[in-house]
Structure formats: structure tokens, C-alpha cells
Amino acid sequence: MAPITKADWIWKEGEFIRWEDAQIHLLSTAVQFGTSVFEGIRCYETPDGPAIFRLRDHLRRLHDSCRIYRLETPWGPDRLHDVCRAIVGKNQLNACYIRPMILRGYGAAGLDAIGSSVEAYVAAWPWGTYLGAGALENGVDACVTSWQRAAPNTLPMMAKTAGQYLNSQLMKWEAQRNGFHEAIAVGPGGLLSEGTGNNLFLVRNGVLITPELDGTILAGITADTILTLARDLDIPVSVQQVPREMLYTADELFLTGTAAEVTPIRSVDRLPVGDGKTGPVTRGLQQRYLATVKGQAPDHYGWLTPVSAQPVPA
Ligand code: PMP
Q1: Which residues make beta-bridge pairs with 197?
Q2: Closest ligand 1 atom number to CA of residue 224
Q3: Interatomic CA distance for residues 132 and 73, integer angstroms
Q4: Relative to the CA of 225, which ligand 1 atom is closest?
Q5: Is the pTM of this model over 0.85?
Q6: Interval between CA 257 and ligand 1 midpoint (Å)
Q7: Which of 13, 126, 231, 274 has its CA 20 to 30 Å from the CA of residue 105?
């Protein structure tokens, strides 16, 4: 995967600091124990200038992650809304990725990290296709990983926390070492869960199927978008328990995520999906999704927030 493309400025608690100056102490609680909640948001180039997709929904999820981990910050969704717009403008970015982070900084020695400050940052940088060139067009090769997602009531999988991505890293490494682009995991009950940083969809006999939120899955905003667009297109939808073997009998499979957008899966465990080419339901939803995020289709749901010149929110 491509390295981060550096931008000039990062926002930290009311001011812009130089990219190079966004440093935290080695012994910050976030570094020692993984207490850092974050979001991944995309800003797209639209006919009316850059616009951020589903910004309020991402900031609500960030707020929810803070609540789950008891991270108290004055930088709530309303204030970060303006910050996210401002960071794009300040860096003179157009299409980019926006990364708000709320983390426990330096102070406490132990796990009861109440003595550590809570710090808020928002970074942004240019970013293209996530799963490699051609992934959106041709699809990716996926496998079922030997690593399971965490059981409900172990790590709260509905929170988007840095520490949870240790599991995703193990999944990803295993998949890539074995020649696959992406991994799909089952949960502790053996039923299908999600990918490393994306949600899973299947199509069978024209019905769009996705695993239900069972405590092993992040409630994806792209997945919600796809379910909404599918209903608009009169595609029947089923949110349900999904046994692993349905992967091998599906007509179409795809992954969704802010970074992955709508990425077709062309093979799973080396078995071609359908005829190995992107199927009509996946292609139709992918086209509608990309047209929506890029402002080329009507924004019925108010999902696009334009980026216009913003003062630094204080
Ligand atoms: N699952 C996981 C584990 C993720 O990291 C992501 C990416 N945030 C998703 C699903 C997809 O979520 P979204 O569509 O909101 O980006």
C-alpha cells in the first residue's frame, strides 16, 4: 500500500500546527495502551468544489467511540464539523482523506488513565484507491482468515479504536503473505463478520445480503449508504446471520468502506465468485455510490458537506 502523502498542516485543539510538529510522548497512554479513537472520512472533488461525505455521521460515530471509552473532550461533533472543513482548505486539498483522532496523552502511569490529558487532532492528506490500482474495476482476491474477530463484550467492536486494528493487522498480514489482497473474518460463533477495514456484502438470486451487527462488526457508514441506495433502486435487502459457506455459493461479493468504497471480490479462497467478473448488482451499486459521493447524482439525503473557506474554529 502507498505511504502517507504528507500535507502541510494538522489541526490540534484550536490551532494548526506543522505536519512535522504533530508529535506525542512515547509514554502517552495512547501509545502504551492503545487508547485512541478515530475516524476515516473522505472528501471528494465535486462539480461544486470539494465536499465531505457523511461528515455528521462520522463525527457521531467518533463521539460514540469517545463515550464508550470515557474520553471527555470539549471538541464535540459540532466543533469538529467546522474543523474538518477547515483542515481541507488550510492544506489546499481537493479529494482527500480526513483523520480526526481523540486520544489519551501523557500523564498517568497505569491503566486508570484519568490523569492523562485527552487530546484532539484532525489530519488530512491526499489518498486514492485503497486496495490497489484496478481494485474497483477488476475486484480483489479475498480469503477467510484464521483470525477471528473479537467476541462481543471483549473489545467493543462498534467503537473505532486504534487498538482494535491489531486484529485487522493480523488478518491483513496473513492474507497478503498467502497471496490475497484482503481477508474476511468470522466471529466467535463461526458466522461471517467483516473485513480488515470494510464490511461484507453478498448477492444471491438478486437479494443483497450483509451480516447483522452482532457485536463483532463496525457499523459502517458506507454499508449504510449502500443499503439506502439499494432500497432506492428496489433491490431486496437482507441483514442477517451469514454462514461462511454462503461465500462460496454467492453470485456476487463485495466490500464496502470509506477507503475501499465499493470493491468487488473476484475470488474467495481461490474460488471464482460467479464467473469471476464484477456482477450487475455490484456494478450498479458501485456506480451509484461513486456518482453520489462525487456529487454527480442528486444528494437526496444531504450527505455532502461543501468545503468552503473556514476560519480556524476555536
Ligand atoms: N469495518 C472496519 C473494521 C473498518 O475499519 C471500517 C472502516 N472504517 C469499516 C468496517 C467500514 O466503515 P465505513 O464504511 O464507515 O468506513
Answers
A1: none
A2: 14
A3: 36
A4: 14
A5: yes
A6: 5
A7: 126
